Amino acid sequence: MDLMQKIVSLCKRRGFIFPSSEIYGGVAGLWDLGPLGSLIKNNIKEFWLKRFVLEEDNIVLIDGTVLMHPKVWEASGHIESFTDPLMECKKCHLRFRADHLIAGRFIGEGKAKEKNQCPGCGAKEFTEPRMFNLMFKTFLGPAEDKTNLTYLRPETAQSMFTNFRNVLSSSRLKLPFGIAQIGRSFRNEITLGDFTFRAREFDLAEIEFFVKPGEDEKWFDYWLDQWEKFYLDLGIKKKNLRKFEHPKESLAHYSKRTVDIEYKFPFGWGELAGIANRTDYDLKRHSEFSGQDLSYFDEDSPAGGKEKYFPYVIEPTMGIERAMLALLVDAYQEIKGGRTKTTESTKEMEVLLNLDKKIAPIKVAVLPLVRNKPELVKKAKEVYQLLKPYFSCQYDEIGSIGRRYRRMDEIGVPFALTIDFESLKQDDLTIRERDTMKQERVKISICLKKLLSKMV
Ligand code: GAP
Fold first, then answer.
1. What angle do helix axes 320-331 and 35-49 make, rounded to 10 degrees?
2. Whole-angstrom Cα distance, residue 238 to residue 254?
3. What's the whole-model pTM score?
4. Distance spanning both ends of the chain, measured CA to CA
5. Beta strands of 250-347 (E only): which ranges?
6. Are strands 31-33 and 17-19 parallel, antiparallel or unpaired?
7. What is the 38 CA–ligand 1 centroid distance (Å)?
8. For the segment 89-140, what is each residue's pLDDT rounded down to a tens digit?
9. What is the mean pLDDT of residues 442-453?
10. Which among 52, 329, 332, 427 has the fewest CB atoms less than 10 Å away?
11. Whole-angstrom Cα distance, residue 330 to residue 352?
12. Cβ(265) – ligand 1 distance below 6 Å
């Protein structure tokens, strides 16, 4: 099994990620998060919110709708330009992204042995590429006609532009300032695969940072550093990150400059996040299409308060599920024979997920040494109740203590608390640290304080 298959299997087995609608055979590109995956995702979003909204003075959060006025997508250029080239196999009618087929992405998949070969049937004849729009269509109201046609948003950015004036007039913000948003986005991707890397539905976390024209390049560099730092602070290893400067030909229709932050996935380097200089494109286009003036009146301008202009926009953006996949890959470790040399464990491969404490879905495991001693179980349950309001905790009494440590290591629990016979006499417990396996005896009366200090 390669690393990616092992991660897919762990995710299913332990409840991180499941295929959507699996009982009906699943749907390509759609994934549900299980109990542990949902907690990880929430932890990433909370950390993002804390870092980029709560700890900042000049960035505010909004929560816009997925469905918007259809004119938004005309103005944004998505109807015209949010497309990928699509080709169809003349024999089996499978469809592919032409650029992926030409680049040899499918080599080794199914019947594709070389570039330009269909993985479905091995044929080498395809239709001419045609541009395929990635936005999902839907209708507002009961009549399914052209006037009611709209789209599921492929990015959250647009409601931050359409609310530019609302945010300005309801807050006291002045340039430079940002509007931030995390939300569901939808793309009808043609090529899928690589687990959750390329999905049809995912969460984006984006900031539209409005700056004075001329100051955009300086702010671009600032956000590139901040974005990379975010991944490092999530615990991702620096050696597995790199930056990719887009050449002019691959820039999105709105961008003057884009740099991607890439991660070294088991299937190769892949985009984790991006920083784009969207210039004044979006505010100008929405002004033009809506007839509303979205320019900025600069009261502090050296020209004496009379300067009006369209701000430039620096857009740092990231996919939350991609961050989660990178975190899982980065944290996954196998230790042949296990870390403890008991006869039982040396036969097996031990899996350790050394997720950062703030990302770990369960922070504390509470384990009575054995389950057939009511006094131990009672004490362990009391500790569990004591800690539950402060951390996500799991109580586990099934199996040997060694097995239970393993189960907790495998899902990345940073601290395991054991209540043993000594605990009954001393009113204490041991705290075992996941990465070092170091154990420390601590009085139950101070274990909450101790854990709170270890958690930062
Ligand atoms: N508003 C700018 C924008 O949407 P993008 O590069 O198209 O830019 C931003 O997407 C981020 O969204 C990417 O860096 C990636 O993390 C994530 N992303 C894009 N397409 C995705 C997909 N099909 N599945 C999962 N994540 C995706």
1. 110
2. 30
3. 0.93
4. 36
5. 257-265, 268-279, 296-298, 307-309, 312-319, 332-336
6. antiparallel
7. 19
8. 888 888 888 888 888 878 888 888 888 888 888 888 889 888 889 999 999 9
9. 96
10. 427
11. 11
12. no
320: Cβ below 6 Å to ligand 1? no
In the 8-state DSSP scheme, what is residue 3? H
Quickly count: other Cβ atoms within 10 Å of residue 144's Cβ.
Answer: 10
Residue among 390, 338, 344 at smallest CA distance from 366: 390
Question: Residue 288: which residues within 8 A CB-CB, separation 6 or more?
Answer: 75
Q: Using a pLDDT cut of 90, give the percent of the chain over it.
A: 77
- Identify the helix (H) or strand (E) that includes residue 368: strand 364-368
Cβ of residue 278 lying under 6 Å from some atom of ligand 1: no
Helix (H), strand (E), coil (C) string for 66-100: CECCHHHHHHHCHHHHCEEEEEEECCCCCEEEHHH
Strand partners, 336: 349
Among the residue ranges 91-95, 358-362, 365-369, the one predicted with the least confidence is 91-95
Distance 59 CA to ligand 1 centre (A): 21
Cα of 1 to ligand 1 centre, how many Å? 28
In the three-class reduction of DSSP (H, G, I as helix; E, B as strand; rest coil), residue 221 is classed as helix
pLDDT for position 305:
64
**Residue 21 Ramachandran class (φ > 0 left, ψ -120 to 50 alpha, else beta):** left
For residue 17, pLDDT over 60 is answered with: yes
What distance in Å separates the CA atoms of residue 128 and residue 29, rounded to the nearest whole number? Answer: 25
Which residue minimizes the CA distance to atom 7 of ligand 1? 155
User: What spacing in Å lies between the alpha carbon of 49 and ligand 1's midpoint?
Assistant: 18
Report d(CA 199, CA 364) in Å as an integer: 32
Is there a contact between 394 and 362 (Cβ–Cβ < 8 Å)? yes
